[in-house]
Amino acid sequence: MCAPIYFSYFIFFNLFFCCALCIVHVFHIFGTLSFAAEDQQVLVTEEEFPEVKVDFQETFLGHNSPISRCRFSASGSNIASSSIDGTVRIWTYDSSTASSRNATIYCGSEVSALSWECRSDRLLLIGTANGGIKAWNADAKRVVCDLSTSRNFPSILDLKCSPVEPVFVSAAASRRHGSTTFERTGFANLTVWHMKTWKPLTVLPLGEDPPAITSLCFNHNGKILAASATDGMIHMFDMSAGLQITGWPAHDSPVSSVLFGPAETSIFSLGSDGKILEWSLHNQGQILWSRDCSRFCNPESFKTRMHEIALDSNGKRLLVTSGLVRAPIYQVQGHESELRTLPHSSSITSVDWHPTLPMYITGSADHSVRVTSIL
Ligand SMILES: *[C@@H]1O[C@H](CO)[C@@H](O)[C@H](O)[C@H]1NC(C)=O
Ligand SMILES: *[C@@H]1O[C@H](CO)[C@@H](O)[C@H](O)[C@H]1NC(C)=O
After folding, report:
1. How many whole angstroms from 104 Cα to the centroid of ligand 1?
2. What is the reported pLDDT for 292?
3. Is the CB of 91 under 6 A from ligand 1?
């Protein structure tokens, strides 16, 4: 106890020796404190989640720059991954399945969004940071559409295919000066496109000079679209009417990612404050579940990229990208403990779950993509 810095530790020690019950309380408040009694020092360490139990893990090393997105196809047998040098690769993790769709696509600009068609593994939509949207036919192995969005909205932040109709939605943003990802995204343009004519069908209304939309999610029948915005709002659209049905302020900071919950009775959102919230859709504004994941998605890591969340096929586990080499896996239902993934050698920039199996992919700034099957 020689320096002022130890003062608060000193209080902990007193508590420790005086009142065993109090220390239990202190543990609850401050997370994990580890005591090294011999040298009379208290180390406040980061709380550690146990490591996930892995059945197998495969590492794909086909990219030469940080991974921007990785996505399982509708059946789960193909994976598309992209890197910031503008390369998209389609590959399989399982050498026993047909890998006739393997391909490398050069887009000439950073790939910022990937979305597979929902009912087959045939079409992959690719969005770039310079306003380009390409559709790749994975069977014919060619680009079947190569369009540019309005020049005023050159950043494609997300693309999503409808699970039912032959349409997709693009979330594009105007650009402005700024030092962080969010400061550089300006106003939103949310356009619905037809997937046969490749022409815009409607522009979804968001009001005058709307803050950028960062992430999109359809419900199971494609009738409702959820969209998250940089002003902290979540918007919901009725796709048949092409109108906004509701919206609410979800975070005090930009929302980075939005997802429908498993029974579609809730919506998950990740704010750039590192908070994950689950919102009731029956009782608007009610929070059903929440986690503070700012240790993995800290404000510093949001400066360079948006983080994303992914739910497994039965809606029980939520995987989040991470500024650290490991990503957290939260248990949304049940009482199992939270887990962390095996490490990459740099931050985890994109995540996705297999559509049916307990298996996820993690893309990293270390250029690799890992497929992990868990027990
Ligand atoms: C497709 O890619 C996977 C993963 O890189 C590889 O194992 C497989 O051999 C490739 N198949 C073909 C036909 O190139
Ligand atoms: C939004 O983007 C679509 C598709 O690029 C374009 O047709 C439309 O004019 C844009 N809206 C505005 C307000 O610029």
Report:
1. 11
2. 92
3. yes
CB atoms within 10 A of CB 4: 8
End-to-end CA distance of the chain: 46
Query: Does 102 contact ligand 1 (Cβ within 6 A)?
Result: yes
Q: What is the pLDDT of residues 93-135, one digit of tens each?
A: 987 776 789 999 999 999 999 999 998 899 999 999 999 999 9
DSSP state of 262: T
* 359-364 sheet: strands from edge to edge: 54-60, 369-374, 359-364, 348-353
pTM: 0.85
Q: pLDDT digits over 244-300, tens only?
A: 999 999 999 999 999 999 888 999 999 999 999 999 999 988 999 999 999 898 877
Taking a C-beta distance cutoff of 8 angstroms, is the pair 166, 194 a contact? yes
Closest CA to 187 of 164, 166, 203: 203
Calculate how far, in angstroms, residue 168's C-alpha sits from the geometric centre of ligand 1: 29
Q: Measuring from atom 12 of ligand 1, which residue has the nearest CA?
A: 99
Which of 206-237 are b and which e, b meaning 16 or more Cβ less than 10 Å from the residue's Cβ? beeebbbbbbbbbbeebbbbbbbbbebbbbbb
